Amino acid sequence: MTNKFVKQIEFKEDNRAKFTFSDATKIRLNPDTNQLELKKDVNGFFPTDADLFVKTQVMNPEALLQWLRFHFEPRTGEQPALTTIQFKLNDGTTDRFFSGGSWVAAGASDWNSEAIVAANIATYPVTSKKLQVIVNLATTDKKVTPVVKLVAVLMDGDFDYLDSIVGDSLVPSLRETIRPVVDFALEAPHGGTRISLRDVEFPYDIDTIERAYDHDGDAGHVTNILSSYDAANNMAILTASVAVGRTIWFRIRLKPRIYVNWASQDFVEVEKLPAVVLSRFVVTGNQVFGRAFVRDVNVPDAVVLENPYKVNIDVDILLLAEKNRPLIRLHDQGLKHTINNPLLRWRAVDEEITMYTTTEPDFRQRPDLRDQHGSTYSLRLQDVFMWLKAEQTLPLVQQVNLTTLKTV
After folding, report:
1. CB burial readout 128-158, b (16+ within 10 A) else e
2. Do the domain assignments include residue 264?
């Protein structure tokens, strides 16, 4: 399902680390007013260089189909005379500007006005699904500076809200992060330095092998004899040859299976342990007043999204292992995932969602009927804005401000 979404880059102090400045002695982010501006010299004058700029972070909304609109604030008509604000865009690799016929590689002095970017951003290449905005501030009057508070871009994306947050963001985050450890003893099936785990019935999905010990000769596991792990062939390569029948003790980091109980069934059939099951979802919240919009200075009108649902998404997580010790290790990894990732990247639109645990761990001491040991905890995805109301295209109005007409 396609949805519109406004990507907004605010030049706030909290976001400073995301920006790159061409010359921090001449262009700055004002922490008091939260805006980009030129920086005064020791005599109180602004620089008149033509090539000063700030690069934003690279946006990477994975559900992107097309960029539709572009604007910045404060508007051109609200800027001091003799100042200019120009732009170029980057697709994650190449700086580009609109040459009059297409988006081409930009040189140092190639810039576009807001109007040109707005008129042509719909044809900007989206193969990489990336966009970085480069903002050029310039003045020919050393007593005044242009300012930029934010840049906004309207995207069209192929995503559903809940599915993209849980299925396409939370699940991959768990899959890429949770890596419990298991100890596995194996009698060497043959001599040599290469031990294939394909030769045995190994019950786990391996991420990597961290260490190996000659258990018969080193029961205290002091000397690591693992040289490397060949993941393509599922083979441990040792630093020294071992004899047939020697017990090799491996410390292995696993990739647990991730399951989502979308149907809210009483149980989920788990093919292999350890496993992480997202077992229940509760969405709470309500519709709130508010709007997000992107103007087009060429028309002039604005695409407006308004009155979103502001919700919390609570997820119950069930961890399963075949014994209590592997379960404890798996549970540690689950909690570490949430603690070390307080912001979940919502991949469809490349936004951050606050994430934290909401319940204490609950361990099941005895195995269930399927001989599985389990523990549970819950996490919350907080203050998610879901813009479900259809967008509107509204004309910009004109208001008379004393002697000047100003578009609002």
Report:
1. ebbbbbbbbbbbeebebbbbbbbbbbbbbbe
2. no
